[in-house]
Amino acid sequence: MSANKFDAFAISDANYDPLTPLSFLRRTALMFPDRRAVVYGERQYSWQAFYDRCKKLASALSRAGIQKGDTVAILAANTPEMVEAHFGIPMSGAVLNTVNTRLDDETIAYILGHGEAKVFIVDYELAPQTKRALELHGDKDLLVIDILDLKNTSHPSAIGSQDYESFLSTGSEDDEWAMPTNEWDAIGLSYTSGTSGRPKGVVYHHRGSYLMSMGTITDWDLPRHPNYLYTVPMFHCNGWGHAWTMAAIAGTIFCTRAIDPEEIFSTILEHEISHFGGAPIVLSMLLNSPAAKDFVCNHKIELMTAGAPPPAAVLQGVEKLGFNVTQVYGLTETYGHTVMSTWNSDWDNLDAEARAKLKARQGAAMVMTAGMRIVDMESGIDVPADGETIGEILIRGNTIMKGYLKDQDNTAKSLKDGWFHTGDLAVMHAQGYAEIKDRLKDIIISGGENISSVEIEGVLHKHPAVSLAAVVALPDEKWGEVPCAFLELLEGKSVSEIEIDTFCRSHLAGFKRPKKVIFGELPKTATGKIQKYELRALARSGKLN
Amino acid sequence: MSANKFDAFAISDANYDPLTPLSFLRRTALMFPDRRAVVYGERQYSWQAFYDRCKKLASALSRAGIQKGDTVAILAANTPEMVEAHFGIPMSGAVLNTVNTRLDDETIAYILGHGEAKVFIVDYELAPQTKRALELHGDKDLLVIDILDLKNTSHPSAIGSQDYESFLSTGSEDDEWAMPTNEWDAIGLSYTSGTSGRPKGVVYHHRGSYLMSMGTITDWDLPRHPNYLYTVPMFHCNGWGHAWTMAAIAGTIFCTRAIDPEEIFSTILEHEISHFGGAPIVLSMLLNSPAAKDFVCNHKIELMTAGAPPPAAVLQGVEKLGFNVTQVYGLTETYGHTVMSTWNSDWDNLDAEARAKLKARQGAAMVMTAGMRIVDMESGIDVPADGETIGEILIRGNTIMKGYLKDQDNTAKSLKDGWFHTGDLAVMHAQGYAEIKDRLKDIIISGGENISSVEIEGVLHKHPAVSLAAVVALPDEKWGEVPCAFLELLEGKSVSEIEIDTFCRSHLAGFKRPKKVIFGELPKTATGKIQKYELRALARSGKLN
C-alpha cells in the first residue's frame, strides 16, 4: 500500500513512548508515595520507600558494571528482595533471570552459564544447595550476593561476596535510571522446567509485560488498591506478572516465603487479602488443610488458578470456602495467563453441575491476546467448536515470548506460521472457550482410540480417598497403550485397586479405565505440577508390566 | 548500544500484533454475542448483531472503492450509526472523520475539502443545514449517505444519494476485513474547534486509541459490563474513546440524540446506568433542571467530567445527586482525557472544603500517559510543586496525536522538544496533581500581576444567582488589563453589578475583582465550552469601555 497523507508524520518523543511496566512504578511512587507497596511480616515499604530501594538496586548494579542486555539472576523466595528485583534489575537495563528454587545443582549451573549471568542474588535458605551449583558453574567473575534474614545478621551459610543490603547501600536513589528505548527490549529470562532435555530460556520483552498487566487488570476486573497475597512463585513466569500489575494500580503486595495453608488463611483475614493466585496443588492444599474447617471470611476473595486443569471437585471445594475462582491458562512462553475462563452472566441460572463444567474450562483469549485457535495436528485446520474434537492450541499476540535464548531451532519450531504452538491439546466450545484435554505427550492411544488422561484423572479425583491422580500411557501388546493410574491418597484413607476399578467402571467408558493402578507419593515439579514424564518413563521401563 | 544476545530475535506474527481497538470488538462479539451492545430507544443490537452491522459497513465502503488511508466523514448525533462508524470505517482501512454538528456551513465545507473526504454520512436532522456546506464544497464525487429516522421512511430532507440502511445492505458481513498492519496507522481525524483561524485536523492512530481504552479501564476502575450512557458527543475526541472502551469490557452503550436532563435522569433509573460523562455545562444543566429535585437513585453512578474546570459548587451539587464525579483533563490533541483527578483514600478524613478543593484539581498523569510537566513559559524549567507558581502544561505519551493533518508548522510547534505543548496554564501540587488556572490566552495581566480568570470565575459561580460566568481581559489605560466578567443568571434570579462587586470583594484580592460586569446569555461551542474568544474580541473592541 502506498503512503497516504496520514503517513506523513514522524514519530517523536512527544507522541511515542516505549511500553514498559517500569512506568507503573514511577507513576505510583509519585501519586501514592505513602501507601503500602510491600508487606512481609514486620517489614513494610511504602511505594516511595520501595521505589527508592529499586532505584538503589539499579544504581548499585550499574556501579558494579552491569550494562544493558546483561543478565542478573536471582534464586529466591517471594520476599521483598524478589519484588525489588522485578523493577531494580530492568531499571539498570539488565535482564531479570528468576531461577526456579527447586532445581538441582547441575541445572542451576547450566542456567547461570547459558544465560551468561553477571550477578547472582541468592536467598540464604537456598545458599547451602547453591554452593555446589556455583562450583560446577566455575565462573570466578560472577558477583554473588546473599539475601540474608534481616533479623539475623550472622549467617554461616552465606556464599556471596556481600549481602543484599550492603550491596543496595553501594547505590544511590539519586542516580539516574533509564526507561527502555525500545519496548521490544528484553525484560526477563525464564527457563522452562522442561520435561526432557536442557531447560529452554524464554525471553520476555517490556511491551509484553506492560500489556500483560493492562490485560490482567481489564479481564480480572482488578480495582485500584487490591491487597494481593503473593503465593505464586515469582520465579514462575515472573509470578504471572502480578508485581508489575500491582504497581499499575497501587496495590499492596503481601510476601510469603512458603505455601502454608494456615498462614494463608490467617493472612487473608488479618490483611483483608482481596486477590491471590495459586496452582491447583495450592487449592488442594488449602482444601485439605485442617484450618479450612474454621475458615470464615466476610470479604470477597478473588483467586486466580492456573497450571494443570484443576479437578471440578477441587474447584467446587474452594468456592465453598468463599473464594471466587477464575481459571486461566498459559505457559512460560506466554508470560503466564493468556486465556481466561471469564464468567458470562448468561450462565448464572444454569444448575450447579452445568456451571461447574463451564467454570472448569480454561477459557477464551484474554483482551491482550490476539488470537487462540485449536487446530487438527495433521491438517492444521481449525477443529469445529463442538466441545469434542481434540486439536493443538495455538496462540498469538503481544504476550508471546521473543523466543528461546540462543536456540533458533526451537524458537522457529514453536513460533511457526505466525502462531505459538503450545503442545497442549484441547477442544473448542462455543463463544471461543477452550477446554484443555491434555499435553500432546499425555494423550493415550489405545486400540486406535485417543484417550485423554485428564478426563480419567478428573474421575479419579472424585473418589473420596484420592488426593492426587496422574494417568499415563502404559505400553500394551494388544492395545498399543492402556491407561495407567498413579494415586496419592488422603491421609488416613485407603482404597484397593479393585475398588478404584469399580469406581471407574461407573464413570468411564470401558476402554478408558486404567488397566493398572499404583499407590504412592507422586513426583512434583517446583511449581507443584506432577512430573508426568517420570511416571511415563517408569511406565515405559517395563518395570510395571 | 551494541546488540546483545537478547536482540537476536525477529518479530513475527506470533509474538507481535499491532495494537488496535478493533480487536476489542472481534473478541467481545465472539465471547458475548448475545449481550446488548447498543441501545437506542426501541432499537437494540447485541454484540453479534452490532459486529455484523460494522462488518457490513466496512464491506460496503470497500465495495464503494474506499481504500486504506481514505477519509470517511460523519456528521451525526450519538445514534447507533455513529457508534458503528467508529468500528466499521476503520475496519475498511479508512480514517474516521467525525464532524462537529454545530459548525457553520463554511467550516464543514472546509473540513470536507481539507480532509479529502470520499464519503460523507449525514444525520437527517442535520441535512438541511448541511446542504449549503455541500454546495460550497462542490465535490460531485463525494458519496453522501443519509442517516434516516428508521421509524419514518419518507424524508424530504434527505440530501444523499442513498440512505444508511440501503448502503449497509450493499455490503456483506461475510467479506473479509483487515486489522491494521501498523499500529501507528491513522484511525481518526478530528478538527479542533479552534479559537481563531481555520480548524486544525488532529490525527489519531490505532495504538493510541487502544492504550486510551486500556488506560481508561485501569484508572476509571471500569468493571466488566458497565451500562454506559453516551452523553459526550462522539464528534468530540471520538467521545473520549468510550465506544472502543466499552467494546473491550463488553459494556452496553446507551445512545441519546440530545442532552436532555429529564431524559438523562429517567434513563439512569430505567437502565441502571453505571457510567456516563459530560462537560461541566452538562453537570450544570442536570443540577439546575427541575427534575433534579425528584431524582433518587439507589445504585452507584460514576460521572467523568472534562472540558473547562468545573466550579467547586457545581461539583458538590452533582455529588449530592449521588454521582461520584471524576474530573479529567485533556485536549483533542490528547485523544481526550490524559490526566485524571484520581482520589487518594488518604484524603478521606479531610473536611468537606479540603476534599472539594482536592477534587477540583484536574489531576495526575493517567497510566497510559508517559509524563506531565508544568514549565515556566520563559525558561522552560519545571515550576515548583507549590500549588502557586503558574506554568504551561506539557504532556507526552502514546495518546498524543500523530500531528495536524497537512500542517507541518503547527505540528512542529505543538510537538517540540519531545513534549506536547497544551497552551493551558496550571500550577503543580504535591504527588503530581495539576490544577488548571487558565488558557495561555486567558491569563489577565493587570499592573504586572498575573490574574487567573478561572479563579475569578470560581468565585462568581458561588454566587447564588449566577448560572455561568466567564472572565476575560479588558484593556485598561492605567493597569494594562483588568478583569471583565460576563454572567448568565439562573432563571428567575437577578443581581446588580454592585452586589456582584461586593460579593467579589469578600472573596478575592482587590486587584482581581472584575472592573466590569456584563449580564446576558454566553456564547458556547458545540461541546458546551464558553466561547471566550468572542468575549475577548468584544472586550478588545472597545465597545464595553
Automatic annotation (TrEMBL), chains A, B:
Q: Which family does it belong to?
A: Belongs to the ATP-dependent AMP-binding enzyme family.
One annotated GO biological process: fatty acid metabolic process
Which keywords accompany this UniProt record? Answer: Fatty acid metabolism, Ligase, Lipid metabolism
Domain named AMP-binding enzyme C-terminal: which ranges?
455-529
The molecule here is called Acyl-CoA synthetase
Q: Name one GO molecular function term.
A: ligase activity
Asked whether the keyword Cytoplasm is assigned, the reply is no
Look up keyword Ligase and say if it applies. Answer: yes
Q: Which organism does this sequence originate in?
A: SAR92 clade bacterium
Q: Boundaries of each AMP-dependent synthetase/ligase domain copy?
A: 26-405
User: What CDD domains does this protein's entry cite?
Assistant: ttLC_FACS_AEE21_like
